[in-house]
Write a structure and sequence with these properties.
- The radius of gyration is 17 Å and the shape is globular.
- A hairpin with a 5-residue loop joins strand 3 and strand 4 (79-81).
- It is 39% helix and 14% strand.
- The relative contact order is 0.16.
- With 244 residues, it is of the alpha+beta class.
- The structure holds zinc ion.
- Residues 89, 108, 110, 171-172 line the site of zinc ion.
Length: 244
């Protein structure tokens, strides 16, 4: 059953292609341990959301997900098209996309370093130049439970506020971007920042870079080279030559 109009079909297909690239990049960079995690994208100029279905019994890694495994849901998570039900934590995606008109893609995953840092109850800080995009900090949601209700999804969106990422204590991260590429790069950058911070803590102390030198990095626009060239690099590394 397809609830999309023919005029939207091309945009849905294009959004699915980008999402597949995002899955390959994030899986390749180790963001989807044990094939858990998901990514969603808003179909431009619509209320439609493309995301992975609940595919765990059907694919071995998320890099093996194909366009036909993706589903289309509405703003409330109702399945409109595709072979699987939405994953239990779809509320992360619907509530963040509802709250943030500037966001086009949302990633939820459980990368090791941000989760380890959350166990210390520390927030990810702008400890490196690249991590300046997270200035002044990545807020920590002190609730490790699955985000499987709309209410918990709204708590994630409130904690995220107008930022780029949230850490869920002892659980994972939620990262956003204007499109799939930016959301993927933000996720990898968050993982890197947390690892640098953990290593610095172990070596004697982790310090945020001085506000006056790094605060402006928070406003880095999606079209900035720091995002686009990193995305091009990761796509070349993980998606080149794919036939799909
Ligand atoms: Zn999770």
């Amino acid at each position: 059953v397809s609830a999309t109009t023919s005029s939207q079909t091309a945009q849905v297909d294009e959004t699915k292609k980008r999402l597949i690239d995002g899955l390959r990049v994030l899986d390749g960079e180790g963001m989807f341990e044990k094939a858990f995690g998901h990514i969603s994208a808003r179909v431009p100029a619509s209320e439609l959301i493309v995301m992975m279905g609940h595919v765990h019994e059907h694919v071995r890694t998320l890099a093996q997900t194909r366009a036909e495994d993706l589903i289309v849901i509405d703003a409330d998570g109702t399945l409109l098209d595709g072979p699987y039900e939405p994953p239990g934590e779809f509320h992360i995606h619907t509530e963040v996309l509802r709250a943030r008109g500037d966001v086009g893609a949302v990633v939820h995953c459980h990368p090791r370093s941000p989760v380890a840092l959350s166990i210390t109850r520390s927030e990810v800080l702008p400890v490196t130049w690249r991590a300046g995009i997270f200035h002044p900090r990545v807020p920590l949601l002190e609730d490790p439970r699955q985000i499987d209700t709309a209410e918990r999804g709204r708590a994630v969106a409130r904690t995220l506020a107008d930022g780029r990422a949230v850490t869920l204590m002892g659980h994972g991260v939620v990262c956003v971007g204007a499109d799939v590429g930016q959301a993927a790069v933000v996720t990898i950058d968050l993982s890197d920042a947390a690892r640098f911070q953990l290593e610095a803590m172990a070596a004697g102390g982790a310090h945020a870079l001085p506000d006056e030198l790094i605060a402006h990095r928070r406003d880095t626009p999606p079209e900035a080279e720091g995002f686009t060239s990193a995305w091009n690099y990761y796509r070349a590394k993980w998606c080149r030559g794919d036939q799909r």
